[in-house]
Write a structure and sequence with these properties.
Elements lengths: L5 H16 L6 H11 L24 H17 L5 H12 L2 H22 L5 H9 L3
Helix pairs in contact: 1-2, 2-3, 3-5, 4-5, 5-6
Length: 137
């Protein structure tokens, strides 16, 4: 799964979803991805469309990007990296009582950090990222 090749990433995700729906044995990463997909019924059919392009300016959400943002956030929380994100997540769960909603709120800030990093060709600004998450508390 850890590849920068978009086709390979999409294929891995689609295969994990297929295996999950076929009650096959999944490795831990496949299971984590399948559980994320499961929470997004609006993407269930799209996961098998590996070559579809998604353009935000056309009002289309890229399900592969969305699922990978969930995965990235979950990994950050489990590792508490950047330092303090686990506590921010916990505080937001206490406040909003909905883990999936909280992940979506936090993912907007990950996406913004990545966008700004790419747009300005700079390293990701983790300090700004954490500060923006703290504002959600």
């Amino acid at each position: 799964m850890f590849t920068s090749n978009r086709s390979e990433q999409r294929k891995y995700l689609a295969e994990a979803w297929l295996k999950y729906n076929s009650n096959e044995t999944l490795d831990p990463l496949e299971l984590q991805l399948a559980k994320i997909i499961e929470k997004h019924p609006e993407y269930h059919e799209n996961i098998s469309n590996l070559d579809t392009e998604y353009f935000p300016e056309q009002g289309k959400t890229n399900p592969f990007l969305h699922i990978n943002l969930h995965l990235s956030l979950q990994d950050q929380i489990s590792l508490d990296q950047p330092n303090g994100i686990k506590n921010i997540y916990s505080d937001l769960i206490t406040k909003y009582k909905d883990a999936h909603h909280v992940e979506h709120m936090m993912m907007e800030h990950i996406a913004e950090m990545i966008f700004n990093s790419q747009k300005y060709n700079k390293p990701m600004d983790l300090e700004h990222y954490l500060n923006s998450l703290k504002e959600l508390q």
